[in-house]
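Progress narrative, work stream C.
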Amino acid sequence: MYVISTRAGSHFGQFVFSKHVLLQRDIISDQGKGGKRAIRVYPPWDNPTSKQALKTQQWQLEYFIDIPFTEPLNCDQARVLYGTQQLK
């Protein structure tokens, strides 16, 4: 599991990626083959303009959990992303 925290002003959240997802997307290497040197993440408050960035944001948001400062955390979503509960 790979967790990337991101913050901008009053926005805060985490991307929670399984190793399997990152292997499928060729972001991490498998036995020394493939992979990238870095990953750029696009939280929901970002407004990317390039087609590639929009496409990347679209798949990444499935693995994003918003962590609001003034509202309760979506615990069900957190359990799913952190692998302690299956989707219903």
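Work stream C, second folded protein:
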Amino acid sequence: MEYKHLRVNSERPFVFRLDLDNEVANNTMTDSLYHSIYKCITALGRNNECRAIVISSLGKDFCTGIDLDNLGQFNTDLASIEDISRRGRSVESRISTIQRAFVAIERCKKPVIAIIHGACVGPGMGLITACDMRYCSTDAWFQVKDVELGMAADSGTLQRLPKVVGNTSFAREMCFTARRVDAEEALRFGLVNRIFESRQQMLNYAIDKAELIAHLSPVAIQTTKTSILYSQGHTIQEGLDHIRDRNALARQSEDFHISMGPAMTGSERPAYARY
């Protein structure tokens, strides 16, 4: 299936790569791109031939922010609605469309890796903080620019960034001041896992990591991601109860049984034929 402003390729067995492809608009986020991300991630989440996903971007920058022409047209259309309640409903619907794209990434049962080069601004931050792992090149920089547009970020950055970096003071500084954060600072505060000298090195590394994940037990990976996500919004005890109940089933899967022998003997890892 084809998606507007989004290229999808199978890089290696069980590994899919998504490229943001809106170079004409310098990789800004448009309504059509939000729809494409949601539909594509949802489809890959249901695709048993996909076990790990890498999100990258074509062109000079990863994402340069909101498409202002797109937003301007929406505001023009909004002004034609006389009733304030109906205007509010229209804005709410648009924000929900944006949010569901990145919620789909966060809740996808397959691990999602973001690789960032150049600018990562506004909704680009919403996208990468919804991913499980993040790598960047030396030229990458990050900015929560929304306050400069007279609005608060509503794509998920305010909710996820503090949890990703584990430092609410740093997250608030980014969001309150709209200042740029370079690759080194992003690494220092835990926004990214690693920095690479070139985009190709970064891509190769991310694909290798995705392939490694894709060849581990799908049941174990899915259970691990689900538990981490659940535990972020619950107490430690609730998280312990959650993984106990999940593993009560997961440990009965064939994956667990065929993994034990190689783990004990150091022999070659088993192949997991079923997702």
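Residues 84-107 form the longest helix (24 residues). No further action is required on this item.
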